[in-house]
């Protein structure tokens, strides 16, 4: 099961008041419903590839819709495709859609905005957004490295209205056009996590955050290991070059040209070719010569300069 379906099914496992159920169904039907014309007049078809989702939608509908609802299962012709579960509402469709601010059949217009007059605690707008997400929303699995949550609409007005609602809660959704679709989307992990909280998908939040944190920790560990490996390789390379310079100076009998500190450092380096500057600092201090890593770096620059002068 995809992570997006897990989120949708978790949302529908909650208990809703009648007003919240109306708001959720308003969002779902507005973007999932399809008007069809039968010999009895208009009918409304709702579909899902999830049996759990369609059963929950059916249960919520029975609370606010008194008409007939036909249930059917359609087996798609394509291989490896899920069955499609359908609900068809056949009675008083025009009145039902208008009363719930979903569709104006007379003017053939989807009602984009919602009625939030009695939404004193934001529970209705959250239910509405939940319904829209169940209908046209998707979210990437937290297992992927690409955080992405989106609503895919047919109308620019719908995408912009969703963005307006969501960003009024300090989200960071944007809208783009892809061919014939308009996408209201967010890509930041924090926004995705906060949205899951917004629609009360607490188990999904826990899974998302746990996976994200584990991956971030793993990435940080790998990054630190790579840094350590790089530093070790850098130390080995620098140590090898410094040994060559010291040996050249000794070969040319110019070792006494170095200061006492530089001579001591050179002697320690020859005996400890793989030692880091921190280790060299400790060894120098143990001989009674107080010095820092910066001081060691400066002494090696002096040694390097003398070795290069020999080549000149």
UniProtKB/TrEMBL annotation:
Gene from which this protein is expressed: whiA
Residue span, WhiA LAGLIDADG-like domain: 126-217
Function: Involved in cell division and chromosome segregation.
Protein's name in the database: Probable cell division protein WhiA
Family listed: Belongs to the WhiA family.
Entries under PANTHER family matching the protein: CELL DIVISION PROTEIN WHIA-RELATED (PTHR37307:SF1)
GO biological process: cell division; regulation of sporulation
SUPFAM superfamilies for this protein: Homing endonucleases
């Amino acid at each position: 099961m995809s992570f997006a379906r897990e989120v949708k099914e978790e949302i529908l496992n909650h208990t809703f008041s009648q007003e919240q159920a109306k708001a959720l169904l308003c969002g779902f039907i507005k973007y999932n419903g399809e008007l069809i014309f039968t010999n009895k007049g208009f009918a409304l078809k709702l579909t899902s590839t999830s049996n759990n989702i369609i059963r929950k939608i059916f249960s919520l509908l029975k609370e606010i819709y008194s008409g007939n609802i036909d249930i059917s299962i359609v087996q798609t012709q394509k291989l490896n495709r899920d069955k499609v579960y359908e609900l068809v509402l056949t009675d008083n469709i025009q009145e039902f859609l208008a009363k719930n601010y979903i569709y104006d059949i007379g003017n053939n217009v989807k009602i984009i905005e919602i009625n939030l007059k009695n939404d004193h605690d934001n529970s209705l707008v959250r239910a509405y957004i939940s319904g829209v997400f169940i209908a046209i929303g998707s979210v990437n699995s937290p297992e992927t490295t690409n955080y992405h949550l989106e609503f895919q609409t047919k109308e620019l007005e719908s995408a912009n209205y969703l963005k307006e609602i969501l960003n009024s809660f300090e989200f960071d959704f944007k809208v783009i056009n892809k061919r014939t679709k308009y996408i209201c989307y967010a890509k930041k992990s924090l926004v995705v996590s906060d949205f899951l909280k917004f629609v009360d998908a607490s188990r999904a939040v826990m899974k998302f955050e746990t996976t994200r944190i584990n991956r971030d920790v793993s990435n940080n560990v790998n990054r630190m290991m790579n840094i350590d490996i790089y530093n070790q390789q850098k130390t080995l390379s620098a140590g090898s070059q410094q040994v060559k310079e010291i040996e050249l100076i000794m070969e040319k009998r110019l070792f006494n040209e170095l200061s006492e500190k530089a001579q001591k450092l050179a002697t320690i380096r020859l005996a400890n070719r793989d030692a880091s500057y921190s280790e060299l600092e400790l060894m120098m201090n143990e001989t009674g010569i107080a010095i820092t890593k910066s001081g060691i770096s400066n002494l090696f620059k002096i040694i390097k300069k003398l070795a290069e002068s020999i080549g000149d």
